[in-house]
């Protein structure tokens, strides 16, 4: 497949804007040049915000049926140009072409779901006479758009995670400025192209490209921005919280996801699900399986099967349909992962398979006996590495699973309903999957975590809740005339 080299302008208030200063977008697989995008300045950000303030008024006045039509038309455009979207995701990021096609499908579903949820933004009547002072009053509460939203998105799902912010924002009548990951801006610009072709009014959506330190700080701290929706790392999320000021924050900050395997589990299913959950997208997935706690009686069996299946994982060319896993997003990230594994091995961990780096590629890696104080046991690895631990009982597994500053999602494999409910009650997470790995999500479910995993919930309906405010209306009877 021939790769075209081209420049892609950024999308500012309905206009495609080029700049002399540019940022190169490269294929992490081989470092080849794909495209360049504008390197926005602080003045570009200020101009974009000013235009978007006007766009927020336009968005708020859009009838619901118009919002729905635009969202459906954008989804239609993506469906029509599916191959372009999928190839772009695979070229600029880490996903294989199979994974990229799956992301395109999910993006289409996210936008269509956003259109459907737009019709369900509603309030309720309030029985004011529940107190003596409320007698002779009737009223209700309604929802209204928050205004202007800044969205900062990561590289690992460069299309659908942008759609998860843009779709609900448009559905709820807001304007939004997107700052995509510097490594993977092209997918977000293609999404803007879809909305441009769908007839979205100018100034409602902007996708501004550039260095996060230059434009990101200004975006999150500007008083005209009423909400920041961020997906990324914990350290950056904490910095945003300090700089944002008095505005809404919705942040998904990753995890160190645990899975528990009980002795009564279906071993074949548990192995297959957790291998895929650990190594899909080269492990660069906030829901990726990082720690697996296996009941002692089946630890050896599970470990043997897990290693065998890991050895079968096909690592190679992202654009090949037979490839299971491609490279990490950069050689720098692969070197970081390598260093964390080496640290664990020096501290006494045993490497069962993997541990080999070639450029940005890092082989699927399985470790046992990893001390709990090691970086790789406490932090989010965001790479294709999984840690296996034996446990004597479920309570011990739950205690160890909770022993990190993350709590996004977890999984448990068991045939015992009591075990399942003990895990549901005991695990400190935003979501728990029974007889599934932590790596499962549909775009309509509430998605988010506790502790260092973030604030608020995504998922279209729940993102709309975050992106709207509540207004109470009360009529005092007897004082109004027809």
From TrEMBL:
Sequence ranges assigned to domain Aldehyde dehydrogenase in this UniProt record: 16-473
InterPro entries tied to this protein: Ald_DH/histidinol_DH, Ald_DH_C, Ald_DH_N, Aldehyde_DH_dom, ALDH-related_metabolic_enz
Pfam family, one: Aldedh
Superkingdom as given in the UniProt entry: Bacteria
Protein name per Swiss-Prot or TrEMBL: Aldehyde dehydrogenase family protein
Family that this chain belongs to: Belongs to the aldehyde dehydrogenase family.
Organism per entry: Sporosarcina saromensis
SUPFAM superfamilies, alphabetized: ALDH-like
Lineage per the UniProt record: Bacteria, Bacillati, Bacillota, Bacilli, Bacillales
Record's keyword terms, sorted: Oxidoreductase
